[in-house]
Specification:
This protein is mainly alpha-helical. It has helices spanning 18-27, 42-45, 50-62, 98-109, 112-115, 162-171; strands at 136-139, 142-145. α1 (18-27) packs across α3.
Length: 190
Protein backbone atom coordinates (compact mmCIF):
# COMPACT_ATOMS: atom_id res chain seq x y z
CA UNK A 1 0.00 0.00 0.00
CA UNK A 2 1.25 3.46 -0.86
CA UNK A 3 0.73 5.95 1.99
CA UNK A 4 -1.23 9.17 1.70
CA UNK A 5 1.35 11.97 1.56
CA UNK A 6 -1.12 14.79 1.06
CA UNK A 7 -1.43 17.34 3.90
CA UNK A 8 -4.70 15.83 5.12
CA UNK A 9 -4.43 16.02 8.94
CA UNK A 10 -6.35 12.80 9.60
CA UNK A 11 -5.17 10.37 6.91
CA UNK A 12 -2.07 12.04 5.46
CA UNK A 13 0.97 13.95 6.70
CA UNK A 14 -0.85 17.13 7.68
CA UNK A 15 0.12 16.82 11.36
CA UNK A 16 3.75 16.00 10.63
CA UNK A 17 6.35 18.70 11.21
CA UNK A 18 8.67 19.76 8.40
CA UNK A 19 11.46 17.89 10.20
CA UNK A 20 9.37 14.72 10.35
CA UNK A 21 8.56 14.89 6.64
CA UNK A 22 12.24 15.52 5.87
CA UNK A 23 13.25 12.54 8.05
CA UNK A 24 10.79 10.30 6.20
CA UNK A 25 12.26 11.34 2.85
CA UNK A 26 15.95 11.38 3.76
CA UNK A 27 16.16 8.88 6.64
CA UNK A 28 13.35 6.48 5.71
CA UNK A 29 11.76 6.84 9.14
CA UNK A 30 8.08 7.44 9.91
CA UNK A 31 6.95 9.57 12.87
CA UNK A 32 6.40 6.39 14.92
CA UNK A 33 10.01 5.33 14.30
CA UNK A 34 9.26 2.46 11.92
CA UNK A 35 11.27 2.20 8.73
CA UNK A 36 9.99 2.89 5.23
CA UNK A 37 10.92 0.10 2.85
CA UNK A 38 11.40 -0.22 -0.86
CA UNK A 39 10.51 1.21 -3.36
CA UNK A 40 11.37 4.50 -1.68
CA UNK A 41 15.01 5.11 -2.72
CA UNK A 42 16.25 6.21 0.72
CA UNK A 43 19.87 5.28 -0.03
CA UNK A 44 19.83 7.94 -2.76
CA UNK A 45 17.54 10.42 -1.00
CA UNK A 46 20.11 10.59 1.82
CA UNK A 47 22.14 12.65 -0.66
CA UNK A 48 19.42 15.25 -1.38
CA UNK A 49 20.68 18.73 -0.69
CA UNK A 50 19.08 20.53 2.23
CA UNK A 51 17.62 23.10 -0.19
CA UNK A 52 16.03 20.46 -2.44
CA UNK A 53 14.77 18.45 0.53
CA UNK A 54 13.02 21.49 1.97
CA UNK A 55 11.59 22.32 -1.47
CA UNK A 56 10.08 18.82 -1.52
CA UNK A 57 8.61 19.40 1.94
CA UNK A 58 7.17 22.76 0.82
CA UNK A 59 5.62 21.12 -2.24
CA UNK A 60 4.04 18.33 -0.19
CA UNK A 61 2.54 20.96 2.08
CA UNK A 62 1.10 22.78 -0.97
CA UNK A 63 -0.76 19.90 -2.65
CA UNK A 64 -4.47 19.60 -2.02
CA UNK A 65 -5.29 17.47 1.04
CA UNK A 66 -7.06 14.24 0.20
CA UNK A 67 -8.79 12.19 2.85
CA UNK A 68 -7.81 8.62 2.10
CA UNK A 69 -7.28 6.22 4.96
CA UNK A 70 -5.07 3.17 4.51
CA UNK A 71 -6.35 -0.13 5.80
CA UNK A 72 -3.00 -1.95 5.75
CA UNK A 73 0.72 -1.25 5.66
CA UNK A 74 3.20 -2.78 3.22
CA UNK A 75 5.08 -5.85 4.36
CA UNK A 76 8.41 -7.21 3.14
CA UNK A 77 9.87 -10.72 3.04
CA UNK A 78 13.04 -9.47 4.77
CA UNK A 79 14.03 -7.46 7.82
CA UNK A 80 14.32 -3.71 7.23
CA UNK A 81 17.45 -2.19 8.72
CA UNK A 82 18.23 1.49 9.33
CA UNK A 83 19.67 3.25 6.32
CA UNK A 84 22.48 4.80 8.36
CA UNK A 85 22.99 7.49 10.93
CA UNK A 86 20.97 10.71 10.64
CA UNK A 87 22.22 13.01 7.90
CA UNK A 88 23.36 16.31 9.45
CA UNK A 89 23.17 18.26 6.20
CA UNK A 90 23.93 18.09 2.50
CA UNK A 91 25.10 21.10 0.48
CA UNK A 92 23.94 21.85 -3.05
CA UNK A 93 26.16 20.30 -5.73
CA UNK A 94 28.63 22.72 -7.28
CA UNK A 95 27.10 24.45 -10.29
CA UNK A 96 30.52 24.81 -11.94
CA UNK A 97 31.23 21.04 -11.94
CA UNK A 98 29.05 19.34 -14.57
CA UNK A 99 30.10 15.82 -13.49
CA UNK A 100 29.23 16.42 -9.82
CA UNK A 101 25.99 18.13 -10.81
CA UNK A 102 25.11 15.26 -13.17
CA UNK A 103 25.86 12.67 -10.47
CA UNK A 104 23.50 14.57 -8.17
CA UNK A 105 20.76 14.79 -10.82
CA UNK A 106 21.05 11.10 -11.80
CA UNK A 107 21.49 10.00 -8.20
CA UNK A 108 19.50 11.53 -5.35
CA UNK A 109 17.32 13.86 -7.38
CA UNK A 110 16.02 11.71 -10.25
CA UNK A 111 17.18 8.39 -8.73
CA UNK A 112 18.10 6.97 -12.15
CA UNK A 113 20.81 4.90 -10.51
CA UNK A 114 18.27 3.16 -8.29
CA UNK A 115 16.66 1.37 -11.24
CA UNK A 116 19.91 0.99 -13.18
CA UNK A 117 21.88 -0.66 -10.34
CA UNK A 118 21.32 -4.29 -9.34
CA UNK A 119 19.97 -4.96 -5.87
CA UNK A 120 21.80 -6.95 -3.24
CA UNK A 121 19.91 -9.14 -0.76
CA UNK A 122 17.48 -7.04 1.27
CA UNK A 123 16.83 -4.63 -1.62
CA UNK A 124 20.00 -2.55 -1.07
CA UNK A 125 21.81 -1.64 -4.28
CA UNK A 126 25.24 -2.86 -5.42
CA UNK A 127 26.81 0.61 -5.52
CA UNK A 128 30.11 -0.90 -6.73
CA UNK A 129 28.28 -1.57 -10.03
CA UNK A 130 26.38 1.70 -10.18
CA UNK A 131 24.50 2.21 -13.44
CA UNK A 132 25.39 -1.23 -14.85
CA UNK A 133 21.72 -2.12 -15.36
CA UNK A 134 20.19 -5.56 -15.31
CA UNK A 135 17.26 -4.84 -12.98
CA UNK A 136 14.10 -6.64 -14.19
CA UNK A 137 10.72 -4.87 -14.10
CA UNK A 138 7.38 -6.52 -14.76
CA UNK A 139 5.61 -4.48 -17.42
CA UNK A 140 2.47 -5.08 -19.46
CA UNK A 141 3.29 -7.95 -21.79
CA UNK A 142 6.43 -9.18 -20.08
CA UNK A 143 9.59 -8.05 -18.36
CA UNK A 144 11.77 -5.03 -19.12
CA UNK A 145 15.38 -5.02 -17.94
CA UNK A 146 17.14 -1.77 -17.11
CA UNK A 147 19.98 -0.89 -19.43
CA UNK A 148 23.62 -0.34 -18.60
CA UNK A 149 23.94 3.47 -18.53
CA UNK A 150 27.64 3.57 -17.66
CA UNK A 151 30.31 5.00 -19.94
CA UNK A 152 31.24 1.50 -21.13
CA UNK A 153 31.80 1.62 -24.88
CA UNK A 154 30.79 -2.02 -25.35
CA UNK A 155 27.80 -2.31 -22.98
CA UNK A 156 26.89 1.22 -21.93
CA UNK A 157 26.02 4.52 -23.56
CA UNK A 158 29.50 5.97 -24.14
CA UNK A 159 28.87 6.48 -27.87
CA UNK A 160 25.42 8.03 -27.44
CA UNK A 161 25.11 11.70 -28.35
CA UNK A 162 23.64 14.28 -26.01
CA UNK A 163 20.61 14.40 -28.29
CA UNK A 164 20.10 10.63 -28.03
CA UNK A 165 20.28 10.77 -24.23
CA UNK A 166 17.80 13.66 -24.12
CA UNK A 167 15.49 11.78 -26.49
CA UNK A 168 15.50 8.64 -24.35
CA UNK A 169 14.65 10.70 -21.26
CA UNK A 170 11.99 12.91 -22.79
CA UNK A 171 10.46 10.66 -25.45
CA UNK A 172 11.33 7.12 -24.38
CA UNK A 173 13.08 6.38 -27.67
CA UNK A 174 16.43 4.55 -27.60
CA UNK A 175 19.46 5.46 -29.69
CA UNK A 176 18.47 2.73 -32.16
CA UNK A 177 14.97 4.25 -32.58
CA UNK A 178 13.20 1.60 -30.50
CA UNK A 179 10.40 2.78 -28.17
CA UNK A 180 11.16 1.84 -24.58
CA UNK A 181 8.81 -0.01 -22.26
CA UNK A 182 7.61 1.48 -18.99
CA UNK A 183 8.92 2.81 -16.71
CA UNK A 184 11.15 4.56 -19.29
CA UNK A 185 8.39 5.28 -21.75
CA UNK A 186 9.26 8.97 -22.04
CA UNK A 187 7.32 10.91 -19.46
CA UNK A 188 10.29 12.79 -18.04
CA UNK A 189 10.90 16.38 -19.03
CA UNK A 190 14.10 18.34 -19.25
Amino acid sequence: MVPNITPDPDTGIGRWSDAEIAAAIREGRRTDGTLIGPVMPIALYRGLSDRDLMAMVAYLRAVLPVQHALTARSTYPFQLTPYGPPVAGVPDPPEDDPVARGAYLAGPLAHCMDCHTLPLPGERRDWLRIGAGGVPFEVPGGVAVSRNITSSKEYGIKDWTDEQIIRVLTQGISADGRRLAPPMSGRASI
